[in-house]
């Protein structure tokens, strides 16, 4: 009898242990705990090694909240540098390769654009203008009002370039210098359509060859060019995320193909799921809106482009430089659209020398 009792007790404890183990595995694979941990370490890195601290600013409209990382100890001798990210995650993940070096030369202001990271608005507007107004409003609350030491220089990449250019146009007194990296500012509707067609066809072809069996059913969904580009900007599946990396880099970051799907799914859950609809609406507004004639801004401007950019071809960088007389173009060799990932040291050196030059 005692022996049977021990057997039943053992089975009970074994069942409990297996249930706990199953729950742990389910948590690791389904709940984005790994990316949450990585995101927390990034926050710690920003605070400890880059002397940055998180600040949340509520704007006067009563609808908008903008989250910033700002220098913990601002120095009068250093100029203010605002860093505006593109699609592809929040500001921490996009600028992790750059903040340590730049924090040694500048008072940094690094916002999450609205609907990215912790920034949010109840406003139904999804235009570039609402982004520009939100960032400018937050900066003014933080003392960057365009007067004296309150002037700023802005480094922007990709989608952030649209926002920065609009800020330069709307508040010229606030912005002293502008750095635009790989941004389609001034793209006509015809050019947008042409690029969307090229990317949708190219990506379908690439993934049909490379991952034809595993993702064949999902490839059928990429027939519409706008659907394809939206999936690129706001990935929903591991395949979508791999597409975004492939099109954004020259090297392709081959290791991404070897990262397990469940980890990529966790990254997508953390970066995109909370505001997925709003991010899609931002992308749709950017891709479909008719652009007016591009305003000629007065700020001294540095334009930086990767010569292998497949998102916005290098020719557009040349054209933007011709449009802005007070500008110069720097080309980084063997680099794609994601210059901040593929050539962060070269990019930092160009930004620093340009902003600090008299």
Automatic annotation (TrEMBL):
Transmembrane segments: none
Name by which UniProt lists this protein: AB hydrolase-1 domain-containing protein
Matches recorded under PANTHER family: ALPHA_BETA-HYDROLASES SUPERFAMILY PROTEIN, SI:DKEY-122A22.2
Coiled coil: 269-300
UniProt domain AB hydrolase-1: residue ranges: 79-344
SUPFAM superfamilies on file: alpha/beta-Hydrolases
Annotated InterPro entries: AB_hydrolase_1, AB_hydrolase_fold, Meta-cleavage_hydrolase
Species this protein is from: Brassica rapa subsp. trilocularis
Top-level taxon of the source organism: Eukaryota
Keywords: Coiled coil
